[in-house]
């Protein structure tokens, strides 16, 4: 009887793209391998309907690992003295774009810690510099919290996408993981970005210490309401020099189950198979794609600094130069029957 109910809820999610809080909780609490298998099949069907076999490639440039924040899980938190800090200058970032452009990328994702050196003026100049040189490419920023005015300025300079995970939609858990940060402000940033017109990516950590099924229900309900263009979820991965360094990671199986559920809830959303998932399990990237994911973000950062962008331990591809990293990822995509797509790949809702 119980098994039947969870499968019926899955079917309801597939048909209506929505569940009540009680239904979400029931579904998550009754997770089994068989349920995950059904969710994966449905999610795969939905993503194929919207995107065919295409998997969008985005080139990731990790341009600074300096951060003034204190997120308990992250190796880049300001208290971590064991990480060698770096920031790339504009010329080096443009050289990464140049290499990426030659490799075929038409989206550049500029990600970094919240580094106060990168004032609004500097980010604006950087975005303008890339936009002028590569007008046929999309620029995505992932640089944390700023004011409405700052986000607007970057948009006017040419940035069109912004990734800002909400990390968890539970205010209590959020505040326990992010000292001196406000949950309300995080949510305001996401809403500001949407209002300005960005294609917005939200998302959460799976299996972060202290997370309950009720917290995950909040994540699903929040995402349904926000209706972002992209959702980035990945397993929590311990980083030894952080206060959460001794906890165990989230699991690949549960993360891919949640990926499937997001695909069913937001059928045309862009959904990356994250590096954290690929790090956790050698088959994680492929499992993600087969569970409804349709975006991959190979690394274009200079090889000398890759290992210093240590959000968590054991990150894959840190020692692999961009072309080879891309080749390995392309092989993984093709191995599971998908087709790598280097086009600008806007959210279907923006075309
Ligand atoms: N500073 C920006 C962007 C860089 S961090 C920001 O915080 O938005 C990018 C993402 O890395 C974060 O959103 C977080 O979800 C993820 N991350 C950080 N530490 C992690 C860890 N230990 N395990 C898994 N993901 C982590
Ligand atoms: Fe800084 Fe982002 Fe890491 Fe938080 S998650 S410490 S904001 S880099």
Automatic annotation (TrEMBL):
Record's cofactor remark: Binds 1 [4Fe-4S] cluster. The cluster is coordinated with 3 cysteines and an exchangeable S-adenosyl-L-methionine.
CDD domains in UniProt: Radical_SAM
InterPro entries: Aldolase_TIM (IPR013785), Elp3/MiaA/NifB-like_rSAM (IPR006638), FeFe-hyd_HydE_rSAM (IPR024021), HydE/PylB-like (IPR034422), rSAM (IPR007197), rSAM_sf (IPR058240)
Residues annotated as binding S-adenosyl-L-methionine: 167, 186
One MF term in the entry's GO annotations: 4 iron, 4 sulfur cluster binding
Keyword Nucleotide-binding: no
Binding-site list for [4Fe-4S] cluster: 67, 71, 74
Cofactor(s) needed by this chain: [4Fe-4S] cluster
UniProt keyword annotations, A-Z: 4Fe-4S, Iron, Iron-sulfur, Metal-binding, S-adenosyl-L-methionine
Location of the Radical SAM core domain: 53-274
Coiled-coil residues: none
A Pfam family that the UniProt record links to this protein: Radical_SAM
Keyword Transmembrane annotated: no
Binding-site residues, (3R)-3-methyl-D-ornithine: 142
PANTHER family, alphabetized: 3-METHYLORNITHINE SYNTHASE (PTHR43726), BIOTIN SYNTHASE (PTHR43726:SF1)
Protein name: [FeFe] hydrogenase H-cluster radical SAM maturase HydE
Gene behind this protein: hydE
């Amino acid at each position: 009887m119980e098994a039947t109910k969870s499968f019926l809820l899955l079917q309801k999610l597939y048909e209506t793209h929505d569940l009540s809080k009680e239904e979400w909780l029931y579904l998550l609490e009754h997770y089994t391998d068989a349920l995950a298998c059904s969710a994966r099949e449905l999610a795969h069907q939905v993503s194929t309907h919207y995107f065919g076999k295409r998997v969008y490639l985005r080139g990731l440039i990790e341009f600074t690992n300096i951060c003034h924040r204190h997120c308990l899980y992250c190796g880049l938190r300001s208290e971590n003295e064991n990480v060698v800090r770096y920031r790339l200058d504009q010329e080096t970032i443009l050289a990464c774009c140049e290499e990426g452009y030659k490799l075929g990328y038409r989206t550049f994702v500029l990600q970094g810690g919240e580094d106060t050196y990168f004032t609004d003026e500097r980010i604006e100049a950087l975005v303008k510099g890339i936009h002028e040189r590569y007008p046929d490419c999309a620029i995505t920023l992932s640089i944390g919290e700023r004011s409405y005015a700052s986000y607007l300025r970057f948009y006017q300079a040419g940035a069109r996408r912004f990734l800002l995970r909400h990390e968890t939609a539970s205010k209590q858990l959020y505040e326990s993981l992010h000292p001196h940060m406000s949950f309300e402000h995080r949510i305001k940033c996401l809403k500001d970005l949407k209002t300005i017109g960005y294609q917005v990516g939200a998302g959460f950590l799976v299996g972060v210490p202290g997370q309950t099924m009720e917290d995950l229900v909040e994540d699903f309900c929040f995402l349904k309401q926000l209706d972002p263009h992209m959702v980035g979820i990945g397993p929590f991965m311990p980083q030894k020099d952080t206060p959460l360094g001794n906890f165990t990671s989230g699991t690949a199986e549960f993360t891919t189950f949640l990926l499937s559920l997001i695909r069913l809830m937001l059928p045309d959303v862009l959904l990356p198979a994250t590096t954290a998932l690929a790090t956790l399990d050698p088959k994680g990237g492929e499992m993600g794609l087969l569970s409804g994911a349709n975006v991959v973000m190979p690394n274009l950062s200079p090889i000398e600094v890759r290992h210093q962008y240590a959000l968590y331990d054991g990150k894959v591809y840190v020692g692999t130069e961009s072309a080879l990293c891309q080749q390995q990822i392309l092989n993984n995509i093709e191995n599971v029957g998908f087709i790598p797509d280097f086009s600008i790949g806007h959210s279907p809702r923006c075309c």
